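User: Assemble these into one structure.

Assistant: Restating your components, then the assembled model:
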Amino acid sequence: MNTRTFKTGDIILIVGIVAIAVLFLVWNNYRAASGQQLKALITQDGHLIKEINLSDLQASESINIDEPVKQVILAEKGRIRFLSSDCPNQTCVKTGWLERPGAKAVCIPSKVVITIVGDNEQIDTFSY
Amino acid sequence: MKKVIWALVLLSLPVFSSACNTVQSKPVKSTDFALGTIIEQQVYGANAQKASDEVWAQIKERDALWTINSPGGDINKLNNNAGLGYVELNPETISILREARRISDLSGGAAFDITVAPLVKAWGIGTDNPRVPSADAVQELVSLVNYRDVLIDEKNGSASLLKKGQMVDLGGIAKGYIGDRAIDIYKSNGITSAFINLGGNVAALGSKPDGSPWTVGIQNPRGENSDIVGVVEVVDKAVVTSGDYQRYFIKDGQRYCHIFDPGTGYPMDSGLMSVTIIASSSTDADGLAKVIVLGLDRGMEMVKNYGRAEAIFITNDKKIYVTPGLKGKFRLEDATHEYTYIQNG
């Protein structure tokens, strides 16, 4: 095929379509790549009370829960945990650090849940 | 020339549509606390919100009816009237008692018995005050354990416990049973893709919206939260695990877990750390997972006799025994490299 068979308008159209397709691909890949970042969701009674991007965290951060029991959650770069809690069983504190997508720490008395999420979760749920 | 442009437009279509798909298939995810544990739903489809709401409503209702801690609940009425005759109960309570009986019959009460409650109470495992009762006390309480003493009067919708002091605890079956009811609710709402996870008891409907199977991580029984030993892929199946690690206490170097051997009255010590059952019915999977009490050989035999379940057994020496039907569906994903995979049978 000779390039002279293309008119200027055709070339603009072709370049336009290719450019849009490439932009879409790049955008999608970018979204997937940024999804690999670790994010922690803290919910209480099913409501989101705090969302922390653990991957981008520079300094450690404390989150205080006051009701119905006093609790301290500590977030550091790439990980998060219940640091202390006034609940009876201390199950949430004993769970320790959460570092991987899907990891979860639960305090039943305060109904506080910390979950680590990433868009590229390979496991849908856990049996335990 | 036009052909070239059309070809380009057609070729670029998959690029655009793939971007749209990821937006369309967003599930309704929700989390709540009930039945003494954390429960999560993930539901896809047009009626996803309505279906999840219905499931939550039903869970709350059943929880009040069946928890051993609720004074006005059916199970308390039944227990308080032990040895005194029949009490009228909600049809759903009658239904779960019937199911409990069917599951107990599978092992003749050796693995699963809903009347172990007096023992659970005496040991206090999972409470702030766990203790080792005297051998005599255990002996006396074992004599009260017998699921056949739960008498059901289908015609009048009532039930009774034969002897005074006997107690029913639905803790070993309620999550499984409710998992099945949740699947019923999803189906009646036209949902074809969803799962519910009741404190580790997973019931999955269909496959993921893209047609691929659900992936369920199996807890490493000696690892931390969300440390897994492997992954099982399921479509239209329940995945239920019983483990010795969920609630336990250690006294004089001995580890006592929350799962009781109904025959001895002591926390089970069978050489198994966990048993995972994969079956169509989540009620049955929950009941069958209690074969952890029986140990590897007898447990596997019972799964085989049941005939419609697959299983993953993990022994104290970190060997993972997997039934033949899971070939290609279970993969070892053990970051610790401590576990050995063994194809069973």
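Strands of chain A lie at 39-44, 47-53, 61-65, 71-76, 79-85, 104-107, 112-117, 125-127.
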